[in-house]
Amino acid sequence: MSSFQEGFDRVVDNIGGITGTVESAQYANNVQKAVDGAIDALRREAVHRSKVSDDYLKGWLAEQWHAETLKVSGAARGRSDVWASVPGDNGPGDVRFGDATTTREAQIKYWKTGEDTAKAVSRPDYEGMEKVVPRDQLEKLKEVAERLAQKNQMNRPEQAAHYQDTADRSSDHVEVGNASSKPLDEKQAKEMAKDFRKEKDIDPDKYDLNTETYVEWSDIARQAGQAALHAAVMSAALSAAPHIWAIVREHIETGQIDTNKLVERGQDVLLGASTAGLRGGVAAGLTAACKTGLMGDALKSVSPTAIGMATTLTLNVLDYSIQLQQGRITNRDFAHHCLRDTFVLSTGILGASVGQLLIPIPMLGALAGNLVGSTLGAVAFEGANQVILGICVESGWTFFSMVKQDYTVAEEVLRQAGYDLFCTHSFNRQSFSTGNFSTQSFRTTTLSFMPIRRGVIACNAVGYLRV
What we know:
The protein is α/β, with parallel strands linked by helices. It has 13 helices and ten strands.
């Protein structure tokens, strides 16, 4: 097998881990960017409103809070179509939000008491809008709005309708499908205003502005499933390419297609795709869980490259272990495969990182870099393997028992050399009497010999070769 073919096979085998790692790392990065954007928006709002009191600043911050945390939630749900903004144009809508197909407006009010907030959010020009109020006032606000609606039913029916709209439409968050902003208490909003006023910044963890607050295990499962599907498709496309070329060449040369070979090739592609999907799903799940903080702060800083490499190596070792147990490979083959995968995976993942930097297109740069890195890694490994075998030939070194110093020439090699072999179990032996056995001596005046040297006679095995 050529070094390029070896490298290509390694790409197909390891594409799942690479795809899953890159996708989940990008997912975690998107959520983190949304969190950082929320903090930055709150900071800018606090600076812009630095001359107003805390009671007024908390309301302005609440508008940014609900707009930005909605976008964070959208990123955590894996949605790129969720948007939100704070117009700041003194219009009736404090926050505009929606997705690719909808646009809505919300009125945000954070007064001191539930009754004050209910009255403030029940203005006629707020009719039909989403009404977002402090979480700790929501229940009280609905009770007040219901009471005021009934009280004004007879004398002021229009105002009663406004209060009833407040009772029906008030919430502590805005939402778009499965994405929603994070509820905020009135006390928390005012404390945030004081923190900005005092420190010019806030502690994100104090207000749960971090990835682990917004990302749930269901998001990890969804991300792993998507990565597994993408890895399977990518592996199938790559592994099918040489088979398609072989079918086309066969048709050109013979004018027909062997359906049996076609079925076998299709089965090989499906088997490789399913394995790549498994690797991609596991790698994606671990990467997303670690990078978003669901597995603890300590693992949040773990390199996605290390996660992808460890996952792929672990699954490969399990596969080799099964083959070893079934007798399909030897102990030395097992060690050789593990060492080869470690080296090729390292260069492949390094190539994926470099490729993503050079080609900043999601997935494309990583896949191109991985292809180049894995191929170069396979070529380098084969070259290094030949050098190591050469050292073992000359020195007798076993390279930690990975190279077998075997001086027994294999039967197939002897047959190829023209020697006639016999099987001991079919050799007929005849007994004789020692009394009838006589010896005959001989004398020679010359001594001749043929030198032999050490050399490679099999894969990772060293023996003697005739000069």
